[in-house]
Design goal:
Order of helices and strands: HHH
Number of helices: 3
Shape: elongated
């Protein structure tokens, strides 16, 4: 499966960038000082 995905990426080119909300959400989820209210604020 991994090889097939890599072949598709090579064939199609770069993947589109992640939406900014997902990037912010990932940062907050991985931040040990972040609380649930901050994460829920991003999701809203």
């Amino acid at each position: 499966m991994k090889e097939k995905l890599l072949a598709l990426i090579e064939e199609k080119g770069d993947l589109p960038p992640l939406p900014e909300i997902l990037i912010n959400l990932e940062r907050k989820v991985n931040d040990p000082d972040c609380d649930v209210l901050e994460i829920s604020g991003i999701i809203e």
